[in-house]
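Q: Convert this sequence to structure tokens.
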Amino acid sequence: MKTVSDDLFRLIKSLNKSEKGNFKKFASRNAGGSKQNYILLFDAIDSLDEYDEDLIRNKFKKESFIRQLPVYKVYLFNMILRSMASVSSADDAGSKIRELIDNSKILSSKALYKEALKLLRKAKEIAVKYSNYTLLLDTLIAERNITVVVPDKNVSEQRDNIYFEQITVIDKLKKLLEYSWLSDQMVICVEQKGDFTIAERAKAMEKIYNKPLIANEKNAEDLNMMFYLLHTKLFYHLGKNELNEVRAILKKELTLLEINRHFIDDNPRNYSGALINYLLFSQITGKRDAVLETITKLNRLRKNLKRKVPLAMQVQITFHASNAEILVYRSTCDIRRGKNLVRKMDELLPRYESEVPPQLKVSLISNLASFLVLAGDYKSALKMNNKLMDISGLSFKSDVYLFSRLLNLIIHFELGNYDLLEYMTENTYKFFRDKKIIHRADNLILTLIKDLLKEQKNAFPALFDEFRYNFKKLSADNNTQNLTAMFDFDSWAVSHIENIPMREAAKKNKLK
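A:
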């Protein structure tokens, strides 16, 4: 039985609000007499939570176009892609080179070869500047085609020069691909730990790290090769948990980008990503001056990009940076800056919710909720955590969803909602147990809440002290590591043992 394709459904669901609006304008102008059918089909598919073709056929059973649904689906899919291309404001080097090559072909078709060659020379300059060997090869092919059509007395020399240029470019492209392959291999070694034993993984990492292309930085002929080389080394040190080395490599990458500003202008997302990673590792390694300097750079970048890049890119950079910032403020107990950021996110999230990637949104809201508990703003934390439980689930970001269930109990405990908490704790425990997803750390937290509800307040410090002792003894499995990354359970326990705000307990813990 033939499976019904859901490609169109997934494409439509990937569009943000402005992209959907642009499609409808495009369809109104370009779909002729069938435009209303395409818009109706688009809206019907967009309204579904999962693709159901029988539902679509039933909805439009009285419409004649439904008899040609497969054809309409293909045409609608391609129309959506054309609508996105028509409003693309891409102004990167690759787009400029392609435009110059395309325009040179138009001029060649009109026998305006001199003018066509002028455009190709410009295309080659840009391709060389950005080490874009794929498009540089395309310009050389276009140049060769003109010399064949319009030969002059030096045609043999011209063809030789173009041929040797092509061979040189192919060699460099091959070398760049080798760098990218080595980088990919190192990432696989570090991230897909289950595919290797510890000894195999260490051996594979050392083998890649000692390859001549990686071991000797002089082998990197251009910036793109150097970035792959640095990325390979970064993951090598990350795999060995050498975090100061990771930070040093990120610093080197940032310096190279800042010296070669044209790479930042061409792809600001790469620069923002490097800044965000450097910010996080500066915070992890305790480099407070670097943290503050990097936050300043991120804010400056966001300001400079306003109205210069597509809204979707602005939004992603803003929210990725904010996610990194709130982690820093939570770790450093910088309540003032953190609260300012929370207020900013309260304003921006509702406005750009459809533009923020789901995984980023879940991560950001989780970190905001944890920060608000640290700050002692439990009502705001509850509101944020309720939103987190709504947008996550066992089928999407299950680790965050399960954490949000536990954080919900902590927040209600801090609010003193003991009557409600008794029911919620039993319900949460039953949920974890029935789904067979309860781990030792989860069990410790749930047991603590149950015990707290049975005792008077004067017994709380002893219960928290016991919890803290047992929590520290837990093996560093993935579940425990994930939980401690999302919330500082130790400082929460200390705050109740010593009867001080959690932020003060966190500060004391950092001084030890």
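The chain has a mean pLDDT of 89.
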